[in-house]
């Protein structure tokens, strides 16, 4: 089987480089997607994933991640505060516990029990300054649970008429990685700090199996990124894979789950959502609600950033 790795956003190239170094040595798709997510988690220039990403309203990071090979092989963590590499904790949940998801203090404590070292300063000085500036500018946010910080949709991903901007400054943006290895085994991973300045305790789509990520070895896989609350009422990645199980092409499955968002929500200009769909034979597609999304694709013949096939609300 020809290996392939697909990752979300312009920072997907960071994930793909790490994942491909595993796949090209005949490594497993599970190791590849974990390596891909870890590379983005470690990169302080990506402010929506891992180290130095955007905190919750209290100024503390709260990280979510999931990893999946099949319905019986999946793991997730939510609201992790002391560890950067949440994708590796998710994998340990999958491989070392009878559970699928651990959350909050329990997830951090589990990571420590498995030998991971907590990180004293998850935020870093630059992000701490950004948070303080945000807090000063939005005093109304602190005590109002109904307050919703609504950054612009992710058009800043691109410079006008050009390729991806150098600064990865996209809110809500999960790194989602899907891969097939040379044995034909598929895996997926996603990792995020979630909605910027969210209410403490908010958990999004990314760590919830069937919402931010779904993989079925007999059918295919899907990963979502963007405004997680849109995904969570529709189980979008499970839906996409189920559509493919019933015969839809990857393109039609991606479009249909986004059309469901258009049909079921009062979408605001800041809402952005994108999905990548992949069949077990390596056919894939991607679609998004609004311009600004791109996918990193790497195969033995190709290593590039590519546009979605469909932008529903262009
Ligand atoms: N899609 C990431 C989140 O909403 O948390």
What is the topological layout?
Elements: E1 4-8, H1 12-23, H2 29-41, E2 63-70, E3 73-80, H3 86-96, E4 101-103, H4 104-113, H5 124-137, E5 175-180, E6 186-192, E7 213-216, E8 220-226, H6 228-232, H7 236-245, H8 250-264, E9 273-279, E10 284-288, E11 295-299, E12 302-306, E13 310-311
Parallel strand pairs: 3-4, 10-13
Antiparallel strand pairs: 1-5, 1-11, 2-3, 2-6, 5-6, 7-8, 8-9, 9-10, 11-12
Helix pairs in contact: 1-2, 2-3, 7-8
The protein binds glycine (GLY).
Describe this protein's structure.
This protein has helices at residues 12-23, 29-41, 86-96, 104-113, 124-137, 228-232, 236-245, 250-264, and strands at residues 4-8, 63-70, 73-80, 101-103, 175-180, 186-192, 213-216, 220-226, 273-279, 284-288, 295-299, 302-306, 310-311. With 314 residues, the chain is α+β, with helices and mostly antiparallel strands. It has one domain: Glutamine Phosphoribosylpyrophosphate, subunit 1, domain 1 (4-Layer Sandwich). An eight-stranded mixed beta sheet has the order 4-3-2-6-5-1-11-12. The two termini are 35 Å apart. The structure holds glycine (GLY). Residues 172, 174, 192, 194-195, 204-206, 225-228 line the site of glycine (GLY).
Provide key terms for this protein:
8 helices; 8-stranded mixed sheet; Glutamine Phosphoribosylpyrophosphate, subunit 1, domain 1; single chain; binds glycine; alpha+beta; 5-stranded mixed sheet; 29% helix
